[in-house]
Amino acid sequence: MADTVYRASTTAPVNIAVVKYWGKRDAKLNLPTNSSLSVTLSQADLRTLTTASCSAAYPAAAGDSLLLNGEPSDVAGARTQACFRELRARRAALEAADPALPKLSTMPLRLVSENNFPTAAGLASSAAGFAALVRAIANLYELPASPSELSKIARQGSGSACRSLFGGYVAWRMGDAADGSDSMADQVAEAAHWPEMRALVLVVSAAKKGVSSTSGMQQTVATSGLFQERIARVVPQNMAAMEEAIAERNFASFAEVTMRDSNSFHATCADTYPPIFYMNDVSRAAIRAVEQINAAAGRTVAAYTFDAGPNAVIYYLEKDTEAVVGTLYHVLGGEVGGWKDAVVKGLKPSISLDEGIAGILKGGVSRVILTGVGEGPIKSEEYLVAEDGSPHATSA
Ligand code: DP6
After folding, report:
1. ipTM of the complex
2. Which of 111, 181, 182, 309, CA to CA, is 20 to 30 A from 331?
3. Which atom of ligand 1 lies at the shortest distance from residue 307's CA?
């Protein structure tokens, strides 16, 4: 039985923070300077599928490997190595306690991973990627670890990945232990608690690749005075207000905190020396469009947020699809890819945007993604590694 190929597959979601993680207090353990909170997006539209496999028949000399979207990917980096090490140590403990268990911890790992969305969409896929990697190996090793326990491992792969171990509304508690043992994610509310939440992503192409989050946040921590105010006062207030807004399903409050927190994060980027700019003219036009939509609706129906790039993510409730999606669909036109017939069919352009704003959006938004709040990782019966251990380049 030495050549048995052991396999496990999972999918994992993307999450978009409404209170942002920005800043590390320990870069090695990837411990943050502040807590953060995100909405998990539906895997029907955005997900990573990962198969983890191991076998004594895999050549030991080749070591662990990862095939990502059909391309070999480097696993030698400290972050991936930290995830492998932690997961193997937990498996080794199980094997030590029960000698009847196969020694999976000693076998090379072969991982194959695929996203169901184009990398060109410019959406950070590291959160879904590391969440899927950790969950798939934990399933392979049959670890009894809870999602919060696994979130501590995924955090070391990429901070935001720890929040993709859960569905719905998820907090990453910064913790205060020096060893990171209390820096983990928990679920604030299930997706079913507030299932009407929707997200419209405006994909904006960046002229050149911006500063990576990892390096950008370290520059902010090192040079921004405003950042100290953000972590000491702004974020703690936003976390409390956001948890209350979610508990009460209060969209106006959810939206205000989301927009203020995004603005606060980008203000600390502008206060970094030299300054970092993630938003561009198209991003700013999206902000103005959301303001105009809210003003015309006479209440808050949409909230914008931006990560470390120019794409706008706009949260809204299903009942306000016409005001939000209808307005932007009318402005951008059906030729922009990503609209769903079931969502846009019959929508009337009830609100008209300022012509200048509409023109900038039309010229700069390359595609849209219409999605909603969704579930956490789901065990999958689809395998990207065949029974004989050979990897599939595509899941089709
Ligand atoms: C702006 O999780 O990509 O998206 O921990 O260095 O991998 P590393 O950073 P990463 O940072 C994400 C930053 C953000 C905000 C957020 O998702 O909370």
Report:
1. 0.99
2. 309
3. 1
